[in-house]
Predict the structure.
Amino acid sequence: MTRTVSARLRWASSALTGLMLLLVAPAVQALPSFEEVRREHRPSDTQVLDRDGELLQTVRTDPAVRRGPWVALEDVSPALRTALLLSEDKRFYEHSGVDWPAVSAAAWGQLWHGRTRGASTVTMQLAGLLDGDWRQRSGGRNVVQKLGQTVAAQVLERRWRKDQILEAYLNLLPFRGELVGIDALSRTLFGKAAQGLDLREAAIATALVRAPNAPEAQVARRACGVLGAVQALSPSDKAGKADRPDCEALGLLVAGVLQRRALDGSSGVAPHWARQVLKRLPEGGRGLASVRSTVRAPLQRFAVQTLQRHLNELAGRHVEDGALVVLDNASGEVLAWVGSSGPLSRAREVDGVLARRQVGSTLKPFLYAQALAERRLTAASLLDDSPTHIPTPGGLYIPQNYDHHFKGWVSARGALASSLNVPAVRVLALVSPDALHRQLRAAGLPLRESGDYYGYSLALGSPELPLLDLSNAYRTLANAGQASELAPPLLPGPGAAPSPRLSSKPSPRPWRRALDPAAAWLVGDILSDPNARARTFGTDSVLATRFWSAVKTGTSKDMRDNWAVGWSQRYTVGVWVGNASGKPMHDVSGTTGAAPVWAELMNFLHARQPSLQAPPPPGLVQVEVRFAQAPAGAGDDRGRGGLSAWLEAPRREWFLAGTEQAVFEARAPSVVALPGAAPSAAGRRRGSPATAAPVLEARIAEPAPGTIVALDPDIPPAHQRLNFRATAVAPPEGAETGLRWRLDGQEVGRGPVWPWMPSPGRHRMQLTNAQGRVLDEIRLEVRGAGLRSRTAAAQALRP
């Protein structure tokens, strides 16, 4: 009798299958292969890899769902596989897609008991996951859907292996909330990979299959039933009795794991870098499993650890933030990018590599490079490091050195390497803020304001600039004055998901001339000279490396930002230390803030790689030089009565050809001792002898360009005169008397100082020599009631 019923059931099922095949054949033929399903699987996270394919950062790029990478069946916990099949499909390895005895039992139960017992196999559920037309809705499936799912399950069984069906099911199955697939479930709720799930965790995961969003109590009851069923398969005592599950303890575990809502949106060692990489991709990289970038993972990890360790040491000095970037000099590729100190920061999402901060003395190398290129001074020229007051439209500008001490006469080499502020301001007076502004823009620095806006504070780094742009500008110094944009962050090749959206090769970055190559090389030679920086940093500072490197530190106003930026033969490294909130640090100097991090990074980069100084470019000569100070009371006969103490030790110094000189002597305040052959705009012609007579060069020191003078009618006119003051560079004796002042095209005075009674309007003041050649020019504006006509004032003051 039983055999007859079974035969009839098989015949009925065959006939029913044939009928269903006719109805749903087109949809069944569209079922994908296992390889297609696995290939099309897209995790909700994109992996940002380093240049060698090593994982740097995992970033969520699909906000609609949480889906992990595809997990092979052998990487799934055996406990989970056992619990799942025991609960969902006991005869999974026996049936051919449809469990007909279970179907019969379900139908019988519905007929006589009024309730439905589940008969859907794992294969049938997978068919519903592969084709949405067969997926169960809130109102249940209709007849056509049930027929289609049944046929599709049998077709899958013929096309796929059992292990492939179970593997795909585990990866496509929706669990609680936004979680899809066993990897997302395991890492979110249990904080581990699917391979590590134990028996209790496997029971909870299985309980979520039928009721993903069920209340906590219901999940706990079902998990306890699954756990008891699994334990019943493995009796633990000699009598063959299974251990009873501890449902109370399991309920506590359920309560704990269901509180975990989601994984972090990003995890790894390069969160800020990953943002920059994904920003370059369509839709932020959504749908891409991985992309390969230019960063080196070992270097990135070392950089993160070094920065955090150093900031921990500075915690008592009110320092909590930092950032750094490492660039390849030749390619412009970013090799390391650390945007914040991570857990040490209260603003870890702020990217310190891109944030604008006052850059302090880090702009001085570009100032000296320009002055050298314009032949306004040499590396051996003497600058007066003494108190000075510079009138500006906003009042008197009084520069100070970092240590509030003045060094007296110092060579340009020593002034730059020791980062002295007053000499830098004096050099800017020679170059002019507008000219330096143009030079900085040529080097790629995104200055927001004009040179007149910054004024003389431009020499001391008053602009706010990002660390990335500042480091790339230093890369220009490393490349002999050649500038280029940074390379794209993406790399093609192994490790990146194949996609037409990624180009096969990075586009070449065009180079442009931004600095004079000889001046750029000479600045690098100065910044690599430990003896030159000894006045400020000592002879054995943290800036000195075992290999060739050049570095400049900087500190912004009120100790808010500290910088160290420098380069070796191959790399440029920039480091910023401070507080994202802008709060000042306490007792942090150029060698205790960013410099130690810079030094450790450089030592790591060159642990096995040498770094040699580039050979000097054409146009540089080396000469033995001496430095002396004129004796007191020498008057106009400076230097004739014999030389006093040496200011600096004799040395061999580099010069741009035509500016070399053997002896440099400090002669008078505010005078730069240039060689007589050092032409600027109109100096000695190239090739003339070094003993040629000095040529008068002068600039308007006061007032500053763009000055606005406001006249007050209550103040007597004689007390509202504006002094025009000239600063001469290497003047011959009596040359000051050859200076002429020309107001709006009319000569109005002579000598280095000329008092002017202002008249309303916009004016142009020119400084000329006795032959009428214009040496300098400024424009200014006078506002307010007129005191006298311009002509009358000029006539009254004509010598």
Summary: The longest strand covers residues 620-629. The mean pLDDT is 81. The chain has 23 helices and 31 strands. The first helix runs from residue 2 to 29.
